[in-house]
Amino acid sequence: MKAIVLEAADKPLVYKEVETPTFAPGEVLVHIKAAALNRRDYWITVGKYAGIKYPIILGSDGAGTVAEVGSDQDKHWLNKEVIINPSNNYGKSDDYQGADFKILGLPDDGTFAEYVKTRIEYLHPKPAHLTWEQAAAIPLAGLTAYRALFTKAKAKKGDRVLISGVGAGTGAFALQWAVAAGCRVFVTSGSGEKIDQAKHLGAAAGVNYKAQDWAEQLKLMANGFDIIIDSALGPGFAKFPDLCNPGGRIVVFGGTAGNIPPLDGRKIFWKQLQLLGTTMGTHDDFTEMLQFVNKNKLIPVIDEVFCLKDAQKAIEKMGKSTQFGKIVLQNM
Question: I need a surface site. Which of 62, 93, 114, 156 has the fewest CB within 10 A?
């Protein structure tokens, strides 16, 4: 089969012939129709991710048809259109991932290929209203945003939500999920164009986080937030307790802007704020997310679609952080 292979850090991705995966009972082979990039893939290509091994086929997101199954009892899955949950071995607790947790695409070969091997329990029916590219865009970022917003922050209709860094895949999903749930959503971005795009998706307003008074602008606009979703940390995080309403929840799942700066703990306990961390999601989170997508007929935001063989160009675009929504690889 053809696949995109990372052979070493800081080397271009290679489109080449590799062996088709072998599989065992309980496993299936999925013919990938489309795959999508995540920031995780970019960090792996530049050697800044834990547990990197080479060579590796990247890709956590994928949708396709079941080509082969490892046992007769799973034959009903053959030729079914599926979306793959990349959150593997989450563990016994719904509150946190276990020691054996892993994400498809490292350490196991991922979806940037004609075929990918996965276990039968990670298959879910593809939402019928979505194209292959739209379905492939959902898994990692959609799941992360869904768990952050609903499982952790307990978002409900009428909540005022701030999404920090809306241009990322997770940020765009968090916006779509929150709007569909009836929340009043505000956003930040370093790009005025991305703020405008967020408004088209239902955001009430947004501010540029490069402005010195960005927090003051948000306070005047929203008069406080019940939920803040953040994927960056960094110096601006210190402003979040001020922006929260009493009982507010701050959920974080990334740290691209650096560590959390010193915080005024008095504001945290007096306002009874919750600071919550989250990573990916459980099987139930993924199932509930797809039910939410189907019920509301939600369509992921796709920035650009590349052919599979042009994955290096897609990674380079991600490195520039110019996208709004997901970058997708088509394998038809």
Answer: 93
Task: Count Cα atoms within 13 angstroms, Cβ side, for 63.
Answer: 24
Look up residue 208 and give its two tokens: 């540029």
Strands 244-252 and 274-277: parallel
Q: How far apart are CA 13 and CA 313, in angstroms?
A: 9
Average pLDDT over residues 273-289: 97
In this structure, what token pair is assigned to residue 309?
């063989």
> What's 114's DSSP letter?
S
Domains plus CATH for the chain? Answer: 2-138+300-330 (3.90.180.10), 142-277 (3.40.50.720)
DSSP label at residue 19? P
Helix H or strand E segment including 141: helix 139-146
Q: What is the pLDDT of residues 114-157, one digit of tens each?
A: 999 999 999 999 999 999 999 999 999 999 999 999 999 999 99
- Per-residue tokens: 6: 């990372």
Letter string b/e over residues 196-215, b meaning 16 or more CB atoms within 10 A of that residue's CB: ebbeebebbebbebeeeebb
CB atoms within 10 A of CB 38: 25
Residue 175 makes CB contacts below 8 A (sequence gap 6+) with 163, 166, 185, 187, 198, 201, 202, 203
Kindly report whether the global pTM for this prediction surpasses the value 0.90: yes
Beta strand 87-88 pairing with 102-103: antiparallel
H helices, E strands: number in the chain:
10, 17
Q: Token digits for 161?
A: 């939500």
Sequence-ordered strand ranges (E) for the chain: 2-5, 14-17, 27-36, 61-69, 81-84, 87-88, 102-103, 115-119, 123-125, 160-164, 184-189, 205-208, 225-230, 244-252, 274-277, 302-307, 326-330
Q: How far is CA 299 from CA 42, 132, 135, in A?
A: 24, 11, 8
48: confidence class by pLDDT, cuts 50, 70, 90: confident
Tokens 């790009």 correspond to 191
